[in-house]
């Protein structure tokens, strides 16, 4: 009996958070490096299903960098990165769309539906959800079809949320002429969180959060203000794939999202522990 009461107590601990997040939008970015295998992915999608059933409105944005790289390798197409962004020629862009939409998006949609959702997969092209333009670093670096978000047209997502669907978004944008752009999924998630006035932006990756020293697993930083996070990029303490994540969090916060988190998506129930416990896990960047 005592065991059972303990279980009920655990459920009760979640009540304040269920109240707080009921009917609020939470944008969850699921990174390719956190999609370790089908079992881990299924478990993440079950957690997201629980969120949906207690009244939260999750919106998933997925990455898929490793699948893109694998498919490019098979076709002997070389790809290089500049500050965490994949330099994307026309051939690469075709592979990016096939990998993200044909494989990763459909796999997530299937797992989400198996877990009991009304999941619908879409890219930034659907109803011009993600209007993109060419990403310009400076005059010397040309990243090809790497895009940045010019404008989010959130109506399609709002309609889906209002009707109980779970949107699963692939980070491909479209410009006025109909050309496709490869946009880093972290940056898309930040822009969507801003456009949807999200209560939280959660980035699921393959590391516990932001580390003071990336070599030292015990150096997790639990909380960072915007300016502290900016300093970490300037000081080159945050490098590579972590740069777009931190930039995405800062951007979302500046444009109105309430809180942003970077968590290890490979850890069992990471999402539930973050949302439904007082201490949370990972790194929170806040205003
Ligand atoms: N200060 C830091 N703290 C933690 N990770 C960092 C830091 N700086 C760079 N990284 C790197 O960023 C990686 C996460 O980015 P990435 O591999 O692109 O993930 P994803 O596929 O989830 O988008 C980590 O695995 C780590 O190697
Ligand atoms: C421009 C750019 O770099 N786009 C990314 C899009 C996928 C992505 O962001 O995937 P992860 O979140 O798994 O890294 C890429 O081509 O890999």
TrEMBL record:
- Family annotation (SUPFAM superfamilies): Carbamate kinase-like
At what residues does the UniProt record annotate the site feature described as Transition state stabilizer? 29, 245
| Similarity remark | Belongs to the acetylglutamate kinase family. ArgB subfamily.
Q: Where in the cell is it found?
A: Cytoplasm
- Record GO cellular component, one term: cytoplasm
> According to its UniProt entry, what is the function of this protein?
Catalyzes the ATP-dependent phosphorylation of N-acetyl-L-glutamate.
Supply the name of the protein. Acetylglutamate kinase
What keywords are assigned to this protein?
Amino-acid biosynthesis, Arginine biosynthesis, ATP-binding, Cytoplasm, Kinase, Nucleotide-binding, Transferase
Q: Which Pfam families does the record match to this protein?
A: AA_kinase
Kindly list the biological process annotations in GO that this record carries.
L-arginine biosynthetic process via ornithine
- Catalytic activity as recorded in UniProt: N-acetyl-L-glutamate + ATP = N-acetyl-L-glutamyl 5-phosphate + ADP
Any GO MF annotation of the entry: acetylglutamate kinase activity
**Gene, per the UniProt record:** argB
Give its E.C. classification number: 2.7.2.8
């Amino acid at each position: 009996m005592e065991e059972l009461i303990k279980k009920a107590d655990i459920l009760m601990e979640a009540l304040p958070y269920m109240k707080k997040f009921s009917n609020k939008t939470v944008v969850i970015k699921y990174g390719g490096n956190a999609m370790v295998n089908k079992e881990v992915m299924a478990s993440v999608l079950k957690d997201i299903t629980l969120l949906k059933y207690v009244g939260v409105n999750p919106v998933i944005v997925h990455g898929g960098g490793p699948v893109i790289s694998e498919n490019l390798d098979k076709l002997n197409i070389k790809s290089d990165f500049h500050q965490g962004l994949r330099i994307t020629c026309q051939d690469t862009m075709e592979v990016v769309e096939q990998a993200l939409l044909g494989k990763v998006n459909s796999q997530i949609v299937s797992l989400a539906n198996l877990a009991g959702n009304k999941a619908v997969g879409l890219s930034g092209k659907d109803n011009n959800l993600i209007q993109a333009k060419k990403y310009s670093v400076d005059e010397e670096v040309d990243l090809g079809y790497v895009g940045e978000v010019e404008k989010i047209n959130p109506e399609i997502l709002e309609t889906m949320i209002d009707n109980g669907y779970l949107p699963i978004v692939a980070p491909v944008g479209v410009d006025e002429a109909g050309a496709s752009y490869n946009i880093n999924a972290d940056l898309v998630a930040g822009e969507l969180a801003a456009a949807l006035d999200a209560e939280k932006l959660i980035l699921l990756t393959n590391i516990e959060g932001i580390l003071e020293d990336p070599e030292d697993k015990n150096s997790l930083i639990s909380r960072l203000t915007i300016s502290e996070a900016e300093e970490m990029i300037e000081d080159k303490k945050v490098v590579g794939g972590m740069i777009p994540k931190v930039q995405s969090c800062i951007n979302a916060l500046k444009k109105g999202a309430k809180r942003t988190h970077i968590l290890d998506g490979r850890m069992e129930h990471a999402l539930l522990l973050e949302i439904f416990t007082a201490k949370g896990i990972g790194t929170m960047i806040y205003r």
